[in-house]
TrEMBL record:
Residues 21-74, 83-139 form the MIR domain. InterPro entries: MIR_dom_sf, MIR_motif. This is MIR domain-containing protein. The lineage of its organism: Eukaryota, Sar, Stramenopiles, Ochrophyta, Bacillariophyta. It comes from Cyclotella cryptica. Keywords: Repeat, Signal. SUPFAM superfamilies: MIR domain (SSF82109). The keyword Electron transport does not apply.
Length: 217
């Protein structure tokens, strides 16, 4: 699976995107910028949680860029066509390119905000389970409180949310929930923001595709 990710990025690579109105497509590998914090990006690493879902990979937000997430079809469904546009309202998986772990959530409490759900990296070589599924919600350009899913594609310029299908919680983060020595003793993630699942759609749950490798048929 890792080989598929690497090969697809190089063989079908269209261009590096630095803005504009490009469409996010199946197989594209993208940065995901958190809009409420402004300068933080979705990140994962080889580090694992020692509590909660012990052994699952840590997912945070960080100001350091470069973490790419590959857009894939939902778990246990027919593979999407590489380069095919992703529609608003589609159920997808996001696989961390460097570690091949899928963005995942479940009912385990998050480490800092215990009323929220934990978000982790899960699986092996891109293979996980149904709790890796997220529904893409595109937001209306003039009113971010409204979704804009009807027949539209995921545009790079669009603000989006990710609804976890299994828990009905939204991918979210806040600058108020930052890891430090007091709440995460000797952790390798000091200065990074907790990522969790929240029960209601909020400003804290808005993301945007940023730089990355965007593929086409």
């Amino acid at each position: 699976m890792l080989g598929y990710i690497v090969i697809s990025l190089f063989i079908y690579c269209w261009k590096m995107v630095y803005g504009g109105r490009s469409i996010v497509t199946c197989g594209s590998a993208i940065e995901l910028r958190h809009m409420d914090s402004g300068k933080y990006y979705l990140k994962s690493s080889q580090h694992k949680w020692a509590h909660g879902s012990s052994g699952q990979q840590i997912v945070t937000l960080d100001t350091i860029r470069g973490d790419l997430w590959q857009v894939r079809e939902a778990h246990n469904t027919t593979a999407c066509v590489t380069g095919a546009p992703i529609k608003c309202g589609d159920v997808i998986r996001l696989t961390h390119v460097r570690t091949s772990k899928n963005l995942h959530s479940h009912g385990v409490p998050s480490p800092l905000t215990r009323t929220n759900n934990e978000v982790t990296g899960f699986g092996s070589d891109g293979i996980g389970d149904f709790m890796d599924n997220w529904k893409l919600e595109c937001l209306h350009r003039k009113d971010e409180t409204k979704h804009d899913n009807d027949g539209h594609y995921w545009n790079v310029s669009s603000f989006v949310r990710f609804l976890h299908v299994g828990t009905r919680h939204w991918l979210s983060s806040s600058v108020k929930n930052k890891f430090n020595e007091q709440n995460c003793h000797r952790c390798p993630i000091h200065g990074e923001l907790e990522v969790s699942g929240v029960p209601t759609a909020e400003k804290s749950s808005v993301f945007k595709a940023d730089e990355g490798v965007y593929l086409r048929v």
